Amino acid sequence: MQLIGEYTVALDEKGRLRVPTALLRQLGDKPDGEGYEFVINRGFEKCMTLYPKSVWDAIADKLSRLNRFNQTNRAFVRSFYLGAYPVTTDSADRILLQKPSMDYAQIGKEAVLVAMDDRIEIWSPELYASVAAIEADNFADLANMVMGGGADGVGDMDFTGL
Q1: Given strand 110-117, what is the order of strands in its sheet?
Q2: What domains can be seen in the chain, in order of their start residue?
Q3: Strand 3-10 relative to strand 110-117, pairing
Q4: Which of 56, 96, 99, 121 has the least C-beta neighbours within 10 A?
């Protein structure tokens, strides 16, 4: 699954937001008579993360194989599941954000949905603007650290088929 795009959405007084049609199309066909299923949890850098249910299930499967006798593993799993809850789109393609999650991510009347690979981050517009304000030189340095370095100059990434 390769989701892309940035979408600014409004929240109603109940904390519901409409998932944009352009984003839902990337998820494929809606199950007959049902909504799209997701799981929301706290993301990194004060956002929420919206996982399609199949992606969440794959991550949960990996987490279930961690050694729970290891304190670091337990702490990570506990933190990862903190505040997680399932949501399903309603007939108007809306999902309900719970108040504790909205408070964590500092989301009010608007949110920015940022599709990233197989998940969607949900940001307050103000926090997202501060995270997205990477200067060109800093982005180039970051790209070099993440993608550069290997014998062929592109780290561990395999671009031979491109």
Answers
A1: 3-10, 110-117, 119-123, 48-52, 37-42, 85-88
A2: 3-134 (3.40.1550.20)
A3: antiparallel
A4: 99
